[in-house]
Amino acid sequence: MKVVHAHISLEGSPVSIQLKFPRILLPLVNISKRLVQLALLILVLNVLAYWTHQHFVETAQEQRVQLYSRFQSLNSKVDAVDARIARSYGNEDLLHAKFGLAVPDTSMRKMGVGGPTFPDSALVWSVVPIKKLKNNVSNRLDRVEAKMDRANNSYLRLQFFIESLHGNLQHTPSVWPSYGFLSSPFGPRTHPVTGEKGKMHQGIDITAPRWTAIRATANGRVETVASSETMGRYVAIDHGNGIITRYGHMVMPFVREGQMVSRFDVIGYIGNTGRATGNHLHYEVWVNNVAVNPIYYILPDQYSVE
User: Fold this and answer.
1) 217 touches 297 (CB < 8 A)
2) 305: which of 23, 169, 256, 274 fits an S-S bond (Cβ 3.0–4.6 Å)?
């Protein structure tokens, strides 16, 4: 049987080892050498994989903490916005009640904005929880946006109503047409010039010095600037909605027909033209071609609309 002799010694050392083994075992020795090399390679790869894994886990956990913090902040902001919307609903209801309007549909108010979905440990390994988290936040924001759109539409309707109401008030007489004192009320009376009893006085008389300014009592368009035997020089203003005001016995009108005027604009001056016993303003208010008591269209100063 053939034998293989092996001499093993350390460099610089007198000690050596003599080995001998059958040649048939030489392939096994080479295989063993390869197996040892492979084992060492696997060990090195495992060490590298372990450190890579640790680095990945630490990075993922840090990102998860950051994501969690950002989500908490966003969730708090959504809650704050939702609370502000709820307060605006209360203010809106007060306005509707103040102006006698029906409270709008409240179904959108009851639509919740959902609760937070917190990331779990699976976030390190899977993107599914991230997608769920993103979808949850997106859905909450969509619902808040829907609430805001509904609130904005309701606000626009309320704004339109108030502007319309304000416009109507601007065109509704509500102030004294001139400074002075009430010398003759609305209703039947004995005519001061003709002496006719039970004569209907279709306006009020305001006595004041000659050339006292006469002002429009609401916005409108000057319909008539003319003279008559009874009213003398007078001005009629059409305010829309069937309301017309007339101002008589002027010494001189200060407007022209077709002119647009605003409340408090000077339209003429007090005189005693026409059938009058002294300087005064005869003021009438007509609603749908019916003379009404002008006192009903004179409000305290703090309630007048500019």
Assistant:
1) yes
2) 169
pLDDT in tens, 122-179: 444 445 556 666 677 777 777 877 777 777 777 777 777 777 777 788 899 999 999 9
State how far the Cα of 234 lies from the Cα of 247, in Å rounded to an integer. Answer: 5
Q: How far is residue 274's CA from residue 158's CA, in Å, rounded to a whole number?
A: 48
Place of tokens 């460099």: 11
> What secondary structure letter does DSSP report for 101?
P
15 contacts: CB under 8 Å, gap ≥ 6: 9
CA distance linking residue 169 with residue 176, whole number of Å: 15
Q: Locate tokens 């009640």: which residue?
A: 97
Are the C-beta atoms of residues 252 and 171 closer than 8 Å to each other? no
Q: Which of 205, 175, 202, 203 is nearest to 281 (CA)?
A: 205
If you search the block for the tokens 């416009």, which residue do you land on?
A: 167
- What distance lies between CA 240 and its chain's CA centroid? 32
Neighbours of 140 (CB within 10 A): 22
- Three-state SS at 286: strand
Instruction: Give, as one character, the DSSP assignment of residue 155.
Output: H
Q: Read out DSSP for 170-218?
A: HTS--S-SSSSEEEE-SEEE--TTT--TTEEE-SEEEE--TT-EEE-SS
Q: Which amino acid is at 86?
A: A
N-to-C CA span, the chain: 128
260-261 and 213-215 beta bridge pairing? unpaired
The position carrying tokens 């060990």 is 43
